[in-house]
Write a structure and sequence with these properties.
The complex is a heterodimer of chains A (296) and B (96). By secondary structure, chain A is α/β, with parallel strands linked by helices. Chain A has twelve helices and five strands. In chain B, strands 1-4 form a two-stranded antiparallel sheet. In chain B, strands 2-3 form a two-stranded antiparallel sheet. Classes of the chains: A alpha/beta (296), B alpha+beta (96). Bound molecules: iron/sulfur cluster (2 copies). One iron/sulfur cluster binds next to helix 1 of chain B.
Chain lengths: 296, 96
């Protein structure tokens, strides 16, 4: 798949020298979002070389940055194309761009317009004023839902490997039924972290992602207990499953912070320092309990 | 964001109000409405909403904001795991 649009200056409609100049990344989805929002309007679009990465991530890396913007203004001859000196940038590009440096180096003043391209028409019709809603980062159910398949694909390999190992271990230790049961409850615990946690995010308790995932995992453990034949389990097996399964969910939930729109890295670091050792202990104690159960 | 709140008291955000010229850039760039302008100076109105994106520090013309920034893909600790990623919608936070 090709996610890249060649960088440079584009015309939407039939823009004149007085029409606005928008700036975006050369990630195809960013470009298309702006084009869709601007349908039927005249405007210039300056596309920066971000190597096919979206505005937010490219700004974080600095490719959607001051140097590239200044370079692209010069390379495109923008100063000769338009008769004003104003650029409209996506707010999420601000981490990479120093507006005052752009002004000093290129003569163009930077206005951070909106977060979502969909808001551009209203922004333009509004006399180029950003309303509070236009500069508020959201994390709607839909925005969370589209992350799920991405996360699943990324986790697929590790889930498959761990699932296969678990299956083998339980197959050898307890036969076919035990093998398939453990795979089912394991997959469920993973899905509690990757699917249920983002979808139910506002309703899961706490602020920590690991905690939210752990709660989802506890619910899953309790839910699958009767169906997985928990009544016939030994005490140690039951304990082990309630220890290990939520730890798995919590781990995958914690990984979601990489995609959320409101977690800080200091916060994630703190969570990891606290949660990772706990997860490790839960898994190890769970495994010891299972082994002990076999020999007691 | 009014709906979601992350951990309290973790952000490294710092503002040195004495040098602030009240230009409002920090208010303009912050996606979580952390700053307000009161009188002719910026103040941190909602510190715990900060996600450490660094936009305010980068755009403050007099350099009175400091933050240990790391965008979206929140941490170097799980960078390996995030490496191959460049999906994520235009407003999303998934970074490679
Ligand atoms: S680092 Fe980002 S989220 Fe934090 S205050 Fe600055 S602009 Fe706002
Ligand atoms: S960007 Fe800097 S100078 Fe401008 S209002 Fe904010 S803190 Fe003050």
């Amino acid at each position: 798949m090709n996610y890249i649009v060649p960088p440079g200056l584009y015309a939407f409609g039939e823009p004149t020298a007085a029409d606005p100049v928008l700036v975006t990344a050369n990630y195809k989805m960013s470009f298309d979002a702006v084009r869709r929002a601007m349908a039927g309007r005249n405007a210039w679009l300056l596309v920066l070389e971000t190597f096919g990465i979206n505005v937010w991530c490219a700004a974080g890396k600095g490719t959607f940055g001051t140097d590239e913007l200044v370079r692209r203004i010069e390379a495109s001859g923008l100063a000769r194309v338009v008769n004003h000196r104003r650029l409209l940038l996506p707010i999420l590009g601000a981490p990479g761009i120093a507006a005052h440096e752009v002004a000093a180096r290129s003569g163009f003043s930077v206005t951070y317009a909106v977060i979502r391209a969909d808001d551009l028409p209203e922004f333009l019709d509004n006399g180029m004023r950003t309303t509070p809603a236009m500069r508020e980062m959201t994390f709607t159910l839909w925005e969370r839902a589209v992350l799920v398949p991405v996360e699943l694909v990324l986790a697929l390999k590790s889930i498959a490997v761990v699932g296969a190992l678990l299956f083998l271990a339980f197959l050898l230790g307890g036969g076919m039924a035990a093998g398939s049961t453990v795979v089912l409850v394991y997959f469920g615990a993973v899905l509690a972290g990757i699917v249920a946690t983002p979808l139910l995010l506002p309703w899961l308790p706490g602020r920590s992602f690991a905690l939210k995932g752990w709660v989802a995992g506890i619910v899953w453990s309790a839910a699958c207990y009767p169906f997985a034949g928990g009544g016939d389990w030994s005490m140690t097996t039951a304990f082990a499953s309630f220890l290990a399964l939520p730890a798995v969910s919590a781990f995958y939930a914690l990984n979601l912070t990489g995609c959320s729109t409101f977690t800080s890295r200091s916060g994630v670091r703190k969570e990891m320092r606290l949660a990772l050792p706990l997860m490790g202990v839960a898994l190890v104690v769970g495994a010891i309990l299972l082994l002990a159960g076999r020999f007691l | 964001m009014k709906r979601f709140r992350y951990l309290k008291n973790v952000t490294t955000l710092e503002l040195e109000p004495a040098g602030c010229i009240g230009c409002g850039r920090c208010v303009e760039v912050c996606p979580h409405q952390v700053f307000e302008i009161a009188g002719k100076r910026a103040l941190i109105a909602d510190r715990d909403a900060c996600m450490e994106c660094g936009a305010c520090a980068r755009n403050c013309p007099v350099g009175v904001i400091r933050v240990d920034a790391g965008v979206g893909c929140a941490t170097g600790l799980i960078n390996e795991w995030l490496r191959e990623r460049k999906l994520g919608g235009a407003g999303g936070g998934c970074c490679s």
